[in-house]
Amino acid sequence: MRRRVFLTSVALLWPLSLAAQELNHVAAAWPYTDFEKVGIDLAEVISGGPPKDGIPALSDPSFIAAADERRLADREPVMSVALPGQAGRAYPIRYLMWHEIVNDSIGGVPVLVTFCPLFNTGMVFDPRVQGRRLSFGVSGLLRHSDMIMYDQETESWWQQALGQGIVGTHTGRELTQLPALMESWDAFRAAHPDGLVMDEPDWSRAYGSNPYVGYDTSRPFLYDGENPPHGIDPLERVVRIGNRAWPLTRLAKAGEIREAGLVLTWTEGQASALDSQSIGRGREVGNIRVTDTAGRDVVHDIPFAFAFHAFHPDGTWMLGN
Predict the structure, then answer these.
(1) Which residues, other chains included, contact 14 with Cβ-Cβ below 8 Å and sequence gap of 6+?
(2) Whole-angstrom Cα distance, residue 190 to residue 193?
(3) How far apart are CA 156 and CA 141, in angstroms?
(4) 5 and 134 share a domain?
(5) What confidence tens digit (pLDDT) does each residue in 116-148 have?
(6) Which of 18, 26, 60, 203 is least enclosed, having the fewest CB within 10 Å?
């Protein structure tokens, strides 16, 4: 069933399909994008409201010791990255909610930290393509409700949920997704007592507040597509590992799932960033860990079910018996 669903509490502009705009108008907004190379149907691309860079990406942010952080509530979610030989770093969702992209380096290794609120996808990538580091910004465009990023070097468009170039010079290229966790601030501190946390950016934003109140208990916003199969609610969170998805309700009920050579665990203690006005007071969604049977971290993310189905329509749903 095809449908368009609305969330009126979010103060964004109604989108315009690129198919309804003059191509020269699009080209004028993106003068360096090579529109001779397009890997998608441009009619699927819509404006999310803010213009290019209207949501400002961050680069080379400042960090403070986790022990010195006083703003974050224990249950607030953070994106955490722990590279070998380096102190763990936490990127609070309270900041990513308003910036969506952080261009950073850890011990000289470039990292691209991303979060799309409309998809609940927190993903970390290696931003190097053919040996060249790219710097990313927020295009203001969406596809299937997911953020389209762009690189500043060629103005190619990239689908955040796939880490894949979709329009321009880098069409078809893929970024390498790095192991990362969306976990509570309390869980990060316990695992990384000597870790670092991104300091509050020098921008005038309502950090700590959620501009999408009630989003993950309402209906997908700016989404025109099929519902997930098997009667799964579109806003059910899932653990995505490659082309497979484990519903969070199943994992939370079990506490631990061992299958397909993986160990998935759920423990309480993390607030939903997309529920209440105050991010730290959101309803319980829990902390998720994914490892192989040897205990090594496995690359994963936690999108909504509709998000997984939108980009993995032939994906496997791990529903158990």
Answers:
(1) none
(2) 6
(3) 13
(4) yes
(5) 999 999 999 999 999 999 999 999 999 999 999
(6) 60
